[in-house]
Design goal:
Layout lengths: L1 H16 L11 H5 L4 E3 L3 E5 L4 E8 L7 E5 L5 E6 L2 E6 L7 E10 L4 E11 L12 H4 L1 E4 L5 E5 L4 E6 L2 E8 L4 E7 L8 E13 L2 E8 L4 E9 L7 E5 L5 E7 L6 E13 L2 E16 L2 E4 L4 E10 L5 E18 L3 E12 L12 H6 L3 E13 L9 E3 L7 E2 L4 E3 L5 E6 L2 E6 L8 E9 L3 E6 L2 E9 L5 E5 L9 E5 L11 H4 L3 E3 L9 E7 L4 E9 L12 E5 L5 E5 L9 H10 L5 E13 L2 E14 L4 E15 L2
Parallel strand pairs: 2-8, 28-43
Antiparallel strand pairs: 1-3, 3-6, 4-7, 5-6, 7-8, 9-10, 9-16, 10-11, 11-12, 12-13, 13-14, 14-15, 15-16, 17-18, 17-25, 18-35, 19-20, 20-21, 21-23, 22-23, 23-24, 24-25, 25-33, 26-29, 27-28, 29-30, 30-31, 31-32, 32-33, 33-34, 34-35, 36-37, 36-43, 37-38, 38-39, 39-40, 40-41, 41-42, 42-43
């Protein structure tokens, strides 16, 4: 039985292999001799846009079979024909095809085939340019290059936002014969300095794209780029404002029906009897997204401004105006930023005031509906970073007035904290009268996603985000009783005191926040070698020579390598910081606001983050006594020289 099974298995194996079978057919001699057709010659075609060009190469099939030539994924501007023993490639590229292209060419006789790489190089052809004029309606919208290096938002008839290689700027634009963009700092709202003048000349257009030369008149350099119309669907994301500040609003766009919330800067301009007044305020609101429109759910009143207006009788009267939001619209959402358009209007708080004042043409213009464009930078939620015991980090736990019970009120608590144990952190307060420090301790509960902070009447949760440039923001949980948006702080490890030297302070600095600059002035910070300087020196924009500045304060380097200032105006008998400070503090009957302390928290190239302590004694009329307060904030400074 076993022998029979073995023989049967052997027979099956031989049959399966075809071994010795009398029914096997011999291979067809003609089939084995067939070979695929071949191309010979260079397969590179070079031409210019708007010029036709051809490339002819030889084709050969050993069996003289009928041959077809195919360009895989062939564009309309490229064609191929096969005739006799030659293949002809024809290119008629437009301006949109300027690039080096690679294609796969297949030649086949129906039985076998070969594939080859075809290169078509299309160069720019400036001699053939014929600029095209677009109407404003054709221009308005969102555009971006294929690689995202240029992103343009024409948000309205005269304003927009541009991102070039990740750098955001706002712009004012016009369209007489060439589209002109006057770019400005992204966080500037009023009387902005020009960063650059860009001219955008349209060279070609089609339904989904335009080919343009974007020429920087300021640098005499330009680039030609294809911009594609962008109409991407929105997605839910977090965003931060783009201000040069150590604190930021943390905003949220919801596309799923949840509440969106924002806090964006607005500039309000009101002509007055003595000239005009411009205020910078924040529009803080929540809304529901319906299509592109943000339907506002919260109070639409942004602020109330009191001004002096000229009455019908020729004297000045107090008149209050309300600044109200009408609505907001999502204009564009790119990978790294969001653009909003806000409509707002200025109205009389008391409508009867209109009857008693002489309403000027300028005031009537200010009362018309206005549009503002705001850009926000994307935030990505991340897990809690490592919090190392013994290290200090920037960011504020608490943001309320706090009384020590000893006649000293902290208007804002410190802008950095120290990790003192795995589950505790401490903030430290200093005063001008004593070297002793006040310390507040907080308990931390870190679950990896958020950190719960408890202590000194505070209970909140911290969440961490990264910005497109990799920098981190620490945001407190949302508290709608205080504001609609969340409050966030740049999260940076504080430099060690011992690494700071006097030389770090000897630069000429300027405040980088836009409300410290205007079209004609900038606020400077400097110290001289004679113990004099200024922490707030307003002068012409762009000055570099501090020798022309008039010092207003004495300064002193402290033991912790910070710099303290005392204003000369409040110590006429002083000769240096110590004597000025003593003179100010010795007078118990006079209010003062002259003692300041600055400390470097972080360095980022030519930008330094300073902590600022401001000691102040003011008269409390309700209690008929002097009250001491400490204000503490942090500011980014830029090195001018």
């Amino acid at each position: 039985m076993n022998k029979l099974l073995s023989v049967s298995a052997l027979t099956l194996a031989l049959t399966a292999c075809g071994g010795g079978s009398s029914t096997d057919k011999k291979p067809d001699a003609e089939t084995t001799k067939n070979t695929a057709p071949t191309l010979s010659g260079s397969l590179t075609l070079s031409t210019k846009a708007l010029e036709s060009a051809s490339l002819v190469v030889d084709i050969k099939d050993e069996q003289n079979d009928s041959v077809t030539t195919t360009i895989i994924d062939k564009p309309q501007w490229l064609s191929v024909t096969t005739s006799s023993n030659q293949v002809t490639f024809n290119a008629e590229p437009s301006l949109f095809e300027v690039a080096n292209h690679s294609f796969t060419v297949e030649v086949s006789d129906g039985k076998a085939s070969n594939q080859y790489a075809l290169t078509v190089n299309v160069a720019e052809n400036r001699a053939a340019w014929q600029p095209i004029e677009l109407s404003n309606n054709e221009v308005i919208g969102n555009w971006q290059s294929s690689d995202g290096s240029v992103q343009l938002v024409f948000a309205s008839e005269d304003a927009g936002v541009i991102a070039q290689n990740g750098e955001l700027s706002r712009f004012e634009w016009s369209n007489p014969d060439v589209i002109a963009l006057n770019t400005q700092a992204i966080d500037c709202l009023h009387e902005c300095n020009q960063q650059a003048l860009l001219e955008m000349e349209v060279l070609a257009k089609r339904d989904d794209a335009i080919r343009v030369e974007l020429f920087n008149v300021s640098t005499d350099k330009g680039e030609v780029v294809t911009l594609y119309k962008s109409n991407a669907e929105f997605s839910s994301e977090y965003y931060a404002d783009v201000d040069q500040s150590s604190f930021h609003s943390v905003n949220y766009l919801s596309t799923t029906g949840e509440e969106s919330y924002f806090e964006v800067s607005l500039a309000s301009y009101i002509p007055t009897a003595s000239g005009s007044t411009t205020s910078y305020t924040y529009a803080d609101f929540s809304a529901t997204l319906e299509g592109k429109v943000l339907k506002i759910n919260s109070d639409t009143l942004v602020t109330t401004q009191n001004t002096k207006q000229l009455s019908n009788l020729g004297h000045e009267v107090d008149v209050a105006f309300d600044l109200n939001l009408i609505d907001a619209e999502v204009i564009a959402q790119f990978d790294d930023f969001l653009v909003l358009k806000l409509r707002h209007v200025l109205t009389y708080k008391d409508e009867s005031a209109q009857n008693i004042i002489n309403e000027s043409t300028e005031l009537a213009e200010a009362l018309l509906e206005k549009t503002s464009i705001s850009a926000l930078r994307k935030l990505t939620p991340v897990t809690v970073p490592e919090l190392t015991v013994g290290k200090s980090y920037t960011g504020r736990f608490n943001n309320k007035n706090s009384d020590t019970g000893e006649g000293l009120t902290f208007r804002y608590v410190p802008t950095f904290f120290t990790i003192t144990a795995a589950d505790t952190a401490t903030v430290t307060f200093n005063t001008p009268k004593s070297t002793d420090s006040f310390k507040w301790h907080y308990n931390l509960d870190n679950n990896g996603e958020t950190v719960k902070v408890m202590g000194n009447g505070l209970e909140t949760s911290l969440q961490f985000f990264t910005q497109p440039d990799g920098k981190m923001i620490m945001a407190r949980e949302r508290n709608k009783e205080q504001r609609q948006a969340r409050l966030g702080y740049e999260f940076i490890e504080v430099v060690d005191d011992s690494s700071i030297t006097l030389d770090d302070y000897k630069h000429l600095f300027s405040y980088l926040r836009q409300n410290y600059t205007s079209s004609s002035q900038k606020i400077y910070w400097y110290i001289n070698d004679d113990g004099k300087g200024s922490f707030y020196y307003a002068d012409q924009y762009g000055l570099e020579n501090r020798a022309d500045f008039t010092p207003s304060s004495y300064w002193q380097l402290e033991a912790d390598n910070s710099i303290s200032f005392a204003m000369m105006s409040q110590c006429p008998n002083a000769v240096d910081y110590a004597s000025c400070k003593d003179e100010v503090l010795a007078n118990q009957e006079v209010a003062y606001s002259s003692l300041f302390n600055f400390k470097i928290l972080a360095k980022d190239g030519n930008k330094y983050l300073f902590d600022r302590l401001f000691w102040q004694s003011t008269y409390a009329y309700s209690e008929r006594e002097l009250k001491e307060s400490i204000f503490q904030n942090s500011y980014w400074f830029g090195i001018e020289k």
